[in-house]
Amino acid sequence: TEYERVAAEAPERSFGEHLQGWLWPRFDSLSRDAKKRWWTAVHSLASPQNAANIPDMRWKVAAHNFGEAIANELKARIFSPFAATKPSLVDLDDRRLGIWKKVLNGKGTLGQLIGCLRESQTPSGATAKRLNEWLEERHPRLPNFIRANKQKLQAIADLRGEGAHDSAELDERPLDDERLDATALRNFYKYATDLLDRVEANETPGA
User: How far apart are CA 15 and CA 165, in angstroms?
Assistant: First the structure.
């Protein structure tokens, strides 16, 4: 997008990324696509030009790019490596089968990814149970966080414009512009970093 291009070419990018890594060390180990999106979100919020020219739109741009960054990191560190284990999907009904196939094929939305993570902690079938076992082994700090922070996960999906439920079902809706402001984005940032701090960075796609 144009916002990504402007952020990528910004002369302050190197300084901004170093500062972001100092403030939140996990930033430095984000996957390539996640880091690009995260910087685009930060730049959209911090740029004086955006504050002057698109004072309201910048909240939506930031929410979109933070959301894409989270989705890209979850795909790279969790769902792509988990898909490589070729989990069985035989226990799923048609609706859930379609969602899990999208997620495991790298096509899932943020709401669907979060939905599958939440389903893994209340598993009703072998697929979700297998994901939980895999998370316990590869991302041991994540399962407890998911169980204890359903509202934070819901807030991440909601602010991005998607509703995640206890199952992998997704209720999509457009971004709520009226709720997007500095306070909402600060909360979003806090919830997102809390989540990604529990996602181990040494996991690589397809591992």
Answer: 39
